[in-house]
Each structure stands twice: as C-alpha cells, then as structure tokens.
Amino acid sequence: MSSDDPSPIVDLAQINLNAASSSSPLSLRLHDALRACSQAVESGDLSGSDSAVAAVIDLLNSAADPPQSDAESVVPDARVCEELLVEVQRFLSNPSSNQMVVDALSLDLPKVVAKYGALSDKCREIAGTIVEFLVSTCSPRDMLSILCEALDVHIRVSKEPTYFILLFDGLAKVFVQIQRHHVEQVKAALPIILQVLRAISSDCHEEASDAINILFEAAIRIGNSMQEMCKRVALISRSRQKSIVSRCGSLILQFTKFLPFCGLSYFGLITGSSLASATAVISKGDGDGTIDCFSLSMDGAALAVVWGHITDDIAKTAGEQLKSVLREIQNNQTARWQAIGTLKYALSSNDYPWELKSNTIDLLLSITDGCNTEGSDDDYLDFSGFVPSLFVTLQAIEMIMMGSFDASLRKKAFTALRRVISEIPSSHRFDILKALITSSVSPSLTAILIDLVRAEILTENNQKCVRNVKDAQFEIGSHSSSWSSQALELVELILKPPEGGTPALPDHSEQVLSALNLLRFILIRESTGQTNQKTVLSEKVLQKAYSEWLLPLRALVTGIEAENEKDNSELANDIFCALNPVQLVLYRCIELVEDRLKHS
C-alpha cells in the first residue's frame, strides 16, 4: 500500500508473506511469540498464557524503547517497528484467531502500540487499525478501562502528545458502543481525559503545536461521542418511560375505582380539600404512626388527577368529567392556587419519570388556560398562605426547564412558568420573582427571570394606559412605580454582586446582558416619556448607576478583551462572542445615563 493512500485500513494482501528472509529477526521472534501465546490461551494454561502475553508485550516494548548506549542515543528503527505492527495486525485479524487470545492481548496492547504512533505516519496508521480492531471486537466497558489505564500509565512518564492521540481516538469509538451504565462510564473516564489535556497543555512546546492540535481534535471527537451517547440514552429513556406509563394505565384504572367509594373527588384531590378531610378522620383518636403511613398522600392526590388527564377512561372510572372540574377551577382563583400548589408533589420529586412530569405540565397548562388574572381582585384575597407551595412549584418547573433533554418539554415548562407567575397577585409577584432570581444558580435561568421582570413592567404600564377607572388606575399606577424602582434593585444585584467585586464574566454574561437590557429599557421609557408615573431615575440613582455599576463593568470588559486580543484560540473567540452583546448594550446604557445627567 502506498504511504500516500488516505485509507486508514492496512492492505495486508500487498505484503509478501513468503518473503521470510526479508523479515527482521525481531519480527520472526514476535511471530513465534504470538503463536505460543495463542497455543497457551487455547489450552487453558493460565500461568503459561500470562507468560506468553508478557513475552509478546516485552518484544514490542523492546522495539519501541530500545536499550540506550552511554556513547550515543539509540532511536527505534521505524521499518522494524512497522513490521512488528503488521505482524500483530495480521495475527489479530486472522479469522482463525481465538477471541480469548485477542481479549488477553487487549489488556496491554493499547499501552504499547500508542508508543509506535510517534515513530512515523505509517506506524501511526497501522497502530490505529490495531486499536480500532480491539475496540470493535472486545467488550466496550473493558476497553474503556484499558484505554483509560493506558492514558494514566503514559501521562506519568511522558508528555508527548502523539502517545495519546491513538488512545483518544479509541475512546471516541468506545463511548458510542457502550450500552449500559452510561453516566458511570463517563464519570470514570472523564477525569483522566482532562488530566492528560491539562498536563500536556501546561508543558506545551512550539515544535509540538501541530500534535497538540491533533490531540485536541481527538478530544473533541470524544466529546461528540459522549453527546451522541447522551442523545441515544435520552431517546431510549423516553421510549421506556412511555412504555412504563402505558403499562401502568391498566393498574391505575383499577385503583381509580376506589376514589368514588372513598368519597374522593378530582376537585377535592387537586385542591387538597379531600385529603384534609380524610386525614382529619384518620388521625382522630390515633397517634402519629397512622398519619405517617399517609406521608405520600399528596403525591397520590396529584398523580390521580394527572392520570385522569392522561386518559379519559380513567376519569370516567372515577365517575367524573375532568373537563368540568377544570372549568370550575379556572373560574375560582383560590382553587387555582391550591391546584398549582398540589402539583408541586408530582413536579418536584425525583422518583417520577420525565414522561409523567410532562403530563403534569400539560395538566397545569389546562388549569391556567384561558384564565384572565389581570384586573381581577386577587390583591383583595389572602395570598400569603399560598406563597410557599407556589414557590416550590415554580422551582420544580425551573428544574424541568434546565434538566430535561426534551426541547418540547422545556418549552412547555417555560410556558407553565409564565402562567404560574401571572397567577400571582401584582403585590406579591415581584417578591416571588426576586426570590427565584436570588436562589438561581444558573446564569441562563437568571437571565430568563430578569426578562420576565422587564415584561411585567411593560404589561403594567400598558394596563394603566387603557384603564379609565379611577381606583384601578391608582392601584396599577402604584404597582407600576414599584415595579420600576424595585427592578433597579435587581440590576444592582447582578451588576454589583452583594458578595463584592464585579460580575463573573464571561461565565455570567447572559444574566449581565439581561440586567443591562432591563436598565436600558427603564432609561428609554423615562427619557421618551412612555410612562406617566413619577420618575425612579433621580440624579442620585443615575450617579450611582454610572459610577458603581456601569464604569466598573466597562473596565472589566475592556480588560478581558485586552487579555484575549492576541489569542486566536477557540476559547478566546467564544469569550469575544459572549462579551460582544454585553459591550454593545453597556455602552448604550452609559450614553443614556450621561445624557440624562447632562439635562438633570
């Protein structure tokens, strides 16, 4: 085969097998050692097979690491090494080779052939086919451990990037073949992969830059394999969950028959009133032991209604029309708060599959469908008692938004989040949103919540413009003023973190951008007279925003850009992409504040 042939497969047909006289003595010894290894393993001689495998590995090591002379440095003979690799490849791919022999050799071969990859392009090509063959024929889980062990052994003695390229390519092929315990396998392999990348990057030399680039390309292939594996796992998981839900339907149908007998209605279950009555009856005259048996009763109440929403047959078995129950809840604000609070049990538990949570979100959307909370007398109702349960429900919805593999479920969860927030009275809505923002550990989620605050300011202002009833106008006006002034607290929370210092850029660029957009929105509204309320941007507030929020942030962004200006790496490009929109909005905010200060 020509050395210019791009094919990664070594064409053994082009090798003259009868030209034994042209083979090196080491190659002939390896041929005999491999044959002895095969005979020992096939005979079941454990001690002899271990010795035979060790003899093969020692021969390969002696060629890759020849004994050094005091007088001069001895380098491996690339032609001899090529012959040895061809001999190994020929032996492994021989149809008559026993799989037990291949498995025995696979324990140590990757460690050895990885060294050959640095000797020549031809050696790297043949060594690559050997690793690929082992990956395709041996147990994926075993090969994952073997390849990781080989990485660990090499990184202790050498930082030569070419040693690791073949092993990384092998790992990329192994991950897509793993069928079970995917997360555990990733957790086991990831530390050594990162350790190798970190060690080689810290000991980088200019002459090795090409090899390091190839190594990182191999690392990217590993990442792509992990991503492909996760996608496959997600599809399998959804399929299994749908199957489980389908199989459970007949059982739930039987259990549902007990609901009317026990006097439990869907309305009472979803609002919690039936459970409260039942618990009072059960606990009467009994100790805590009896009540402890019903610790999951609220979970059961929520799930019973969810199942009724999934299948009409189940609802009919319960002797109810769920649609009429939902209409009753939609027309009763207190009942909606109770129902939303009850669904937290199904949404927040880690014991229930994503498919069931998706159905719970569907029920939540049905409960809040067509409900017009704006302009209602919600603020005259006592909402304080519902705050804890609704807050937990909102946090559970957030977890679904951030944790689900299913894009359609994440989208539904976001719609549900907005619906539940709209159910909260205006006088409590900002406090709930602020609590969600301060408890968020995800910059992306924080950015979404800040955008919701901006939408609330616009909604309140639009309502004020279209209402002519004096007392309603006064009420909305006061809330709108409060929203704008309190929104500035959120801007300060993000741009001037309470723990001190400046925002963590570029990691938190999403939430910083949302905070800047919120500030720009308030500045433009007041500067263009789009609000009839009293201004919240006094000269004192503007000076504070300018000197304590915007100028320190500008210095931070400028500094990060200067540090990465001459860096052409992919990481530097990602940093510039993250900071560019932040910089654009930041400079616009500075212009608006400076203009307001000139005319104040």
UniProtKB/TrEMBL annotation:
One Pfam family from the record: Kinetochor_Ybp2
UniProt xrefs under InterPro entries: ARM-type_fold (IPR016024), Glomulin/ALF4 (IPR019516), YAP-bd/ALF4/Glomulin (IPR013877)
GO molecular function: ubiquitin-protein transferase inhibitor activity
GO cellular component, one term: cytoplasm
Protein's UniProt name: Aberrant root formation protein 4
